[in-house]
């Protein structure tokens, strides 16, 4: 287990800056999630830490020691790739044993560690199969197995769940969270899915166009987004962002209000409009209301609310939960 | 049943092609077999008597036969070794990003498009000639005696010429295979602590196994019937030092005008080629299953 620190780290590809100079301190045992839209530089940042790309400037410290110039294998990190990158001609056993073989560990140690990893990951029955004979979830587990047998100082996950179907994704997400609790290892996890980020992270790093928008625990990002981008990215369904007169009323360029902070009424309120869509999820109902001059506003209501397309609804924001942003997209103090 | 029906239709549709192919292959084979059992000499226009297996006895006890058999396999092994090992090496080099990649790849591939007779003559007259050849000049520069390649090491010379022609083919096949190797696999191995050599042995080489099997199979088919290069350079000599099976059959027919024993030789070559083919198909089949 190790702490990882990035000091003024930046990365350019042929003169084009993909990661602007950034500082980040990751504590021992922490699970940090890099999240952002595709092309925001989150995977590049992970590959910089892994050593698969060279940093253009700045320093990378692992446990306080400079690792900027170390080759990947010497950094003591393990990585789980998006494609799993299993070795197709090797059995599951050989795949998991590969890092140990490369480290020239003796046969007994390898056997013991592989068996142990297989037990933790429920892979005992598949050890002699080839990767192509496994399902997506099993392949994922083999990739994790290969990562844990080395006993790395930190784990790196590069969008590990993006190739799985929705149900399996939720399962594996829980398994990864459970594994992190068991091993207590420092973990960096990259995803474009804000739900994964919210559920897994101790701290989230939100990246946009190579810049850090905000760093903080999930709920802090949810409650106090520092920028317009974070406000729009974290939370599902998205926060309603309103500009123009509605915003200048509050002395802001843009105001944001989350769907759960709007109260609905059939008779009175601040804004009114026709229901364009009502999503009945059972526990909740998300109502999309077309408000003249403001656009479509989403609001959360109780699951038993009976509204239909075309009905008129009134919406009133809870002003204590209003987010205000200036013209540059920075949050204004409440 | 629809599937039986389609199966029958499919067979019907395929039958003309299969019949043509069968005719194309079966008739010459049958004729060769027929001639091989008869005393058929072009220089002695008497009746072609049935002689049983006498032609085979004559061909198989010819001292040139064992030499040509050994030469056939020596050429095959030499060329395969050079092209596979050299091909993997060249493919690894060409896979790296560099300036003028397109031009370099084109140049590397070009020997494959030179006709075997032309390339063999160029090698014979411009490189290996003991008086005017480039190799002789290089030897002289270093004050050494010029080597008469085709006289002193005819089999080695032929191996070099043929390997030069086939190296681009192997390189091309192996390069395309190399390009289909998942970059994340290499990176994963790098993170798992494998150095460049270990990555080559454990990741790259197993990935190339199938392509190597294909290269070996295709080259074997062509190299067993190697002929043009021998004809225009050594003529099988000196003596029979560079005669392979195909050339021996040729010399029986068109130099000694003995069609009977040449046909027997042809049949022997067919049997040998089939024995080799069985092993090769096993090798390739095992690799294609993956």
TrEMBL record, chain A:
What are the annotated GO cellular component locations?
Answer: ATP-binding cassette (ABC) transporter complex, substrate-binding subunit-containing; maltose transport complex
- Read off the Pfam families from this record: ABC_tran, TOBE_2
- Do you know which InterPro entries this protein is assigned to? AAA+_ATPase, ABC_transporter-like_ATP-bd, ABC_transporter-like_CS, ABC_transpr_MalK-like, ABC_transpr_MalK/UgpC-like, Mo/tungstate-bd_C_term_dom, NA-bd_OB-fold, P-loop_NTPase
Keyword check for ATP-binding: yes
Enumerate the UniProt keywords alphabetically: ATP-binding, Nucleotide-binding, Sugar transport, Transport
Domain ABC transporter, first and last residues per copy: 4-234
GO MF entries:
ABC-type maltose transporter activity; ATP binding; ATP hydrolysis activity
User: Which PANTHER family does the UniProt entry name for this protein?
Assistant: MALTODEXTRIN IMPORT ATP-BINDING PROTEIN MSMX (PTHR43875), MALTOSE_MALTODEXTRIN IMPORT ATP-BINDING PROTEIN MALK (PTHR43875:SF3)
> This chain belongs to which protein, by name?
Sugar ABC transporter ATP-binding protein
């Amino acid at each position: 287990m190790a702490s990882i620190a990035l000091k003024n780290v930046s990365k350019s590809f042929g003169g084009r800056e993909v990661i602007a100079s950034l500082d980040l301190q990751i504590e021992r045992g922490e699970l940090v999630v890099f999240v952002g839209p595709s092309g925001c530089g989150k995977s590049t940042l992970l590959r910089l830490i892994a050593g698969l790309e060279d940093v253009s400037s700045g320093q990378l410290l692992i446990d306080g020691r400079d690792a900027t110039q170390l080759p990947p294998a010497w950094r003591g990190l393990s990585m789980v790739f998006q494609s799993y990158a299993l070795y197709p001609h090797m059995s599951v056993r050989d795949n998991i044993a590969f890092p140990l073989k490369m480290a020239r560990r003796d046969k007994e140690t390898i056997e013991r560690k592989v068996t142990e990893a297989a037990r933790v990951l429920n892979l005992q029955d598949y050890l002699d199969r080839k990767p192509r004979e496994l399902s997506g979830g099993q392949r994922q587990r083999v990739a994790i197995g290969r990562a844990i047998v080395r006993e790395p100082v930190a784990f790196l996950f590069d969008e590990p769940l993006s190739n799985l179907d929705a149900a399996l994704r939720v399962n594996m997400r829980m398994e990864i969270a459970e594994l992190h609790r068991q091993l207590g290892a420092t973990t960096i996890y990259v995803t474009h899915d804000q739900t994964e980020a919210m559920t897994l992270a101790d701290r989230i790093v939100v990246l946009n166009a190579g810049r850090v928008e905000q760093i903080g625990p999930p709920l802090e990002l949810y409650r106090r987004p520092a920028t317009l981008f974070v406000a729009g990215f974290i939370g599902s369904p998205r926060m309603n962002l309103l500009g123009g007169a509605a915003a200048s009323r509050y002395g802001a360029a843009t105001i944001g209000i989350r769907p759960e902070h709007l109260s609905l009424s059939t008779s009175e309120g601040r804004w009114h409009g026709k229901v364009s869509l009502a999503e009945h999820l059972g526990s909740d109902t998300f109502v999309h209301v077309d408000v003249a001059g403001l656009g479509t506003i989403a609001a959360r209501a109780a699951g038993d609310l009976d509204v239909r397309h075309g009905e008129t609804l009134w919406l009133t924001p809870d002003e204590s939960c209003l987010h205000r942003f200036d013209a540059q997209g920075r949050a204004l103090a409440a | 049943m629809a599937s039986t029906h389609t199966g029958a239709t499919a067979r019907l549709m395929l039958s003309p092609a299969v019949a043509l192919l069968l005719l194309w292959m079966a008739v010459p084979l049958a004729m060769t077999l027929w001639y091989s059992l008869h005393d058929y000499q072009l220089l002695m226009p008497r009746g072609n008597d049935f002689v049983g297996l006498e032609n085979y006895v004559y061909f198989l006890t010819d001292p040139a036969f064992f030499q040509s058999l050994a030469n056939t396999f020596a050429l095959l092994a030499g060329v395969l070794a050079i092209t596979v090992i050299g091909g993997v090496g060249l493919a690894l080099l060409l896979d790296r990003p560099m300036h003028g990649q397109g031009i370099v790849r084109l140049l590397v591939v070009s020997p494959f498009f030179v006709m075997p007779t032309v390339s063999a003559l160029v090698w014979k007259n411009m490189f290996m000639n003991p008086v005017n050849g480039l190799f002789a000049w290089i030897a002289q520069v270093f004050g050494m005696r010029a080597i008469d390649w085709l006289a002193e090491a005819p089999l080695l010379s032929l191996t070099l010429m043929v390997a030069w022609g086939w190296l681009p083919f192997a390189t091309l096949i192996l390069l395309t295979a190399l390009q289909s190797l998942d970059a994340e696999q290499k990176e994963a191995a790098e993170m798992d602590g494998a150095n460049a050599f270990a990555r080559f042995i454990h990741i790259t080489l197993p990935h190339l196994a199938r392509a190597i099997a294909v290269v070996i199979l295709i080259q074997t088919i062509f190299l067993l019937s190697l002929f043009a290069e021998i004809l225009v350079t050594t003529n099988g000599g000196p003596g029979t030092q560079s005669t392979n099976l195909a050339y021996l059959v040729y010399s029986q027919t068109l130099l000694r005008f003995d069609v009977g024993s040449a046909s027997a030789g042809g049949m022997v070559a067919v049997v040998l080629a089939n024995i080799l083919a069985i092993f090769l198909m096993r090798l390739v089949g095992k690799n294609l299953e993956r």
